[in-house]
Amino acid sequence: MRYFAVLILALLPVIGQAQVWEDRKVFGAATAPRNLQILSSTDTSFFAPIIESFIAQRADLSVEYLVTGTAELDDVFRQNPDRFDVVISSAMDLQLKLANDGLAQRLDGLSHPEWAQWRSSLFAFTTEPAAIVINNAAFAGLPVPATRQDLIEVLRANADIFEGKVGTYDVRQSGLGYLFATQDARASETFWRLMEVIGSLDAQLYCCSGDMIDDLARGRILVAYNVLGSYARARAETADMLTVILPSDFPTTMMRTALVSKATSEPALAEAFVGHLIDLQSAGAAEDFPLPSLGAFQDTTGRSSISLEPALMTYLDRLKRQTFIREWESAIIQGP
C-alpha cells in the first residue's frame, strides 16, 4: 500500500503537466533534426500559410504549432518557458508583462518601428479591431448600429428579439476579452451602460471569437460584442449571413504580438521566424499572410489605439483586476 502511495505521488507532477490543446499541428517532417515549438492563441488556419512559407526552404526543420486561449497561454508559458520557442498572442497586456518579467529574448537584429515593439523583446505584427458582429437576418427592418450607443438603443427597443441572443467574452476566462473590456472602460462610460443592457438580456459568455462567430452563423446568438473582426471576415461561408461593424464612436484596436522565449534552445531560428512574420505582414500578400497587417487599422497618428507601453499592465494588478471583475459581474450577470 505504501508503494502505491509513493507511486501516485511520483506521478502527480507528470499528470499535472498534461495539457489539452485547442489545436495542435506539426508542419514539415516529424523526423526533422530541428524543431520549433510555437505557442499561440491564433487559429491554425491563419498561421498555416505563414509557417509553410517559413519551412519551404528549410528541409531540416519541423514546426509544432500549439493553440490555446490567451489566459491559459500565459499560464502555460510561465510554468514551462523552456518548452516553447516562440509565443504569439492577441492579449497585448499579458504579452507585455511576460517581456517585462524577463521571459522574452532581446532581438536586437530586427528592424521594426518603435511604436510596434517594446524594448526589442516584443514585436507587433498585426492590428485588429474589436467589432460588433451581427446576424443579418435578425436585423431585417431594424437599424444597424454604428456606435455603442446605437447598439444600446436597438437592444433596449427590441428586448423580445435579443433575449438570450447577445454574446461577448467572459473576461474572467479570456485574456483578450479582459484587455478589450478594460480598454473600453477607460475610453468611455458607455461601456458599462452597454454591459448592463447586455446583462439584462441574459448575456451568453464565450472564451473566444471563433465560438461566438460559430453561434452567430447558426443563429444561436444574433449579436456579438468585441469579437475579432478579422475572424468574422475570414469566414467566407458566412459572408452573406454576418455584418462586421467597427464602432465609429471610438476604436478598440489591439496588436497581435510575438516574443521569443529567453529559455529557447533555438534562439537564431526563433528570431528568424519572428523576422519572417514582420516581413510577411509588410509585403501584404494575402495568400501568405491572411491576417490584417500593421497598417490595416491605424489611426491618423500612425499608432494602434492600444499602445505597447507599461500603462497597458495597469489592469493586471491583482487588486485592480479583482475590482474590475467584480464590477463586470455585477453588470453582466443579473440572474437570480
Radius of gyration, CA atoms, in whole angstroms: 21 Å
Indicate the percent of residues in helices. 25-40%
- The unreliable regions are 1-17
- Tell me the major beta sheet: 7 strands, mixed
Q: Distance N terminus to C terminus?
A: 48 Å
Instruction: Say what oligomer this is.
Output: single chain
- Shape field: globular
Number of discrete helical segments: 12
- CATH class category of the largest domain: Alpha Beta
Topology, number of strands? 13
CATH architecture of the largest domain: 3-Layer(aba) Sandwich
Task: Give a structural overview.
By secondary structure, the chain is an alpha/beta fold. The protein has two domains: 17-127 and 255-305, D-Maltodextrin-Binding Protein, domain 2, CATH 3.40.190; 128-253 and 318-332, 3-Layer(aba) Sandwich (D-Maltodextrin-Binding Protein, domain 2), CATH 3.40.190. It is 39% helix and 18% strand. It contains twelve helices and 13 strands. The chain has helices at 2-16, 44-55, 70-79, 92-100, 148-157, 159-162, 175-187, 190-200, 209-218, 229-233, 267-283, 318-332; strands at 23-27, 34-40, 61-67, 86-89, 117-118, 122-124, 128-135, 166-169, 204-206, 223-228, 242-245, 253-254, 257-260. The strands form two sheets. The protein has a seven-stranded mixed sheet, with helices on both faces. Strands 7, 8, 9, 10, 11 and 12 form a six-stranded mixed sheet that branches. The longest helix has 17 residues, at 267-283. The chain is globular, with a radius of gyration of 21 Å. Mean pLDDT is 89; it is low at 1-17.
